Amino acid sequence: MPAFEIAAKEMEIYVRGRNTIERAGIPYMVAGGYGVACYAHRRPTKDIDLLILPADAERAITALETERFFIRRSDPRWLYQAQCDGIMVDLVFGSATHRGIVPITQEWLDHARPIAIGTETFSVAAPEELIGQKILAQHENRSDWWDAEMILARWHDQVDWDRIEARTSIDPVKRLAFLLFIESRHSSAGWYPQSTLERTWREAAAMLGI
Prior knowledge:
This protein is of the alpha+beta class. It folds into 2 domains: 1-125, 2-Layer Sandwich (Beta Polymerase, domain 2); 127-210. It is built from 9 helices and 9 strands. The strands form 3 sheets. Strands 1-2-5-4-3 form a 5-stranded mixed β-sheet. A two-stranded antiparallel ribbon has the order 6-7. The protein has a two-stranded antiparallel ribbon with strand order 8-9. A hairpin with a 2-residue loop joins β8 (113-117) and β9. α5 (127-137) packs across α7 and α8 crosses α9 (194-208). It starts with 7 loop residues before the first helix and ends with a helix.
């Protein structure tokens, strides 16, 4: 997939951040807006999201501090942020939901793919992990489900729905809502297996006690 352009200053900071955690021996993968842009549409984004393991979070910010990044522990359960010259690198080590935190695991990282972003090649989250994150993240004033929809528009015949179900197992109600959202906009398009809808329906009903 071809690279897309990023402003030179932003690219410099993103590469510095990426190189810093790589030198520290920390595996990562890109998610967020830049991750979505690798598979679907590009939209304005204010930062780059690097997904890392929870066990590596403190080591990552220590390494970035030595490179003169300003560090903020925005939410010690799942998010740290590193800033340099007004440009942000988010270190994401979990998905926050109202039902709890879903930690990033090695299995997520094992499915990452090398893809060109700007002038560099980054390790990028696979469609399944991006879609799973987006399903859980959606709330008022966010565009996460539209991001997931755009990825599915291009990749629905290739994605592994078992993995998407696993990534969203904490909240089958939200997964069901997303499937119905897709069905309302792309009825009978076959973007997901019937078995996924049936299983999700049962899990959501059990969670809701109905």
